[in-house]
Amino acid sequence: MALLMAPSARAADKAIPAAADPLTATIHMEDAERFARLYAATGGKPTAAQLQQAYIDPGSYAVSVFTPDRILDAAHLAAVVARNPASYDHAIKQCLPQVRRYDADLRAIYLALHGLLPDQKLPQIYVLFGANTSGGTAGPMAQVLGMEVLCDTTAETPKAFRSTLRRFFAHETFHTFQHDPSGRGKAPLLADVLTEGAADFIALLATGEVPEPDRATWAAQRQAALWTQFGKDMVTTGPAANRLDPNLAGQARRRWVSNYQTAPEGWPYEVGYWIGMQIWQCYYDRAVDKHQAIRDIIDWNDPELILRRSGYDGKSCPA
Could you read off the pLDDT of 149-207 as tens digits, one per residue? Predict the structure, then answer.
């Protein structure tokens, strides 16, 4: 769940894939299936050397995208797998067999995205196994989904897992369309939630489903209080405050984003996604030209201007 990354040195050695056709798009499962075979062959205890030789080195472009900040390296991945065998067992046995059924969902969502944004090229979709830290990220012409995280967080039923995949098909794809806003430094926390909230808002339009409905219900019941806290944290993470106390700024940021498994006690993870989605919903609702509003959601640079134009203030969207 991240903004489009520049290719790593390792990724640069792999060919960037061609754009996907929404009518024929399929989910690339080769990396995940290769990991599953290695996991079975080693009794669920692959070594770093085995992971390097049989999983990372022959991996697709997607593995090279996922490695620098998520897999890190073979030694780290081996240690994580050894600590969390139940997570990988569950994902391999319960979720991986389901994935192939959802090519039709991917095509439907890609047709919706193509309708919303006809000038944007659609990335290829890959599933693989990472180090239990990320459900997905985006690279040039690729969105990459981490099976052990997606399966662990929302796979109580096949229906729930399908809903999660559908959201990620839209959310991570939208990240491949985005750029890093030039005005991020003025309001970095606001820029973070607008970036992620934009992807969730487009996912809502493309799938017809509210992303993370339990989180949305929790946040809606506390909307005013959350907005008050967010306002304080925008100050704490601002450029002046960040120079004075970067640790405090980092803690404030992680209250809202980048906190999978480390959210504040009693909070769902990444509530900032919901805050950002509310801002964009208000922006879209107030726009006379809805098509221009969608283009604005991709191409914006001033986070404070977007917030002002949205009119969002921790309550329902203004008329």
Answer: 998 755 568 888 999 899 999 998 998 899 999 999 999 999 999 999 999 999 999 99
**194-234 per-position pLDDT tens digit:** 999 999 999 999 999 999 999 999 999 999 999 999 999 99
Name which of 128, 4, 8 is nearest 56 in CA terms. Answer: 128
Strand-pairing partners, residue 139, are 142
- Quick check: is 168 in a domain? yes
Task: For residue 169, count other CB atoms closer than 10 A to its CB.
Answer: 28
Domain that holds residue 207: 184-310
The reply to whether 154 and 247 lie within a common domain is no
Of 128, 148, 177, which residue sits at a domain end? 177
CB 223 within 8 A of CB 315: yes
- Tokens read off for 311: 């009119």
Query: Which alpha helices (DSSP H) does the chain contain, by range?
Result: 9-12, 30-41, 48-51, 61-66, 74-83, 85-90, 96-99, 103-116, 147-154, 158-177, 188-207, 213-220, 223-236, 239-244, 246-253, 271-286, 290-298, 303-310
Query: What is the DSSP secondary structure assignment for residue 264, as one 8-state letter?
Result: P
- Provide the 3-class DSSP secondary structure of residue 286: helix
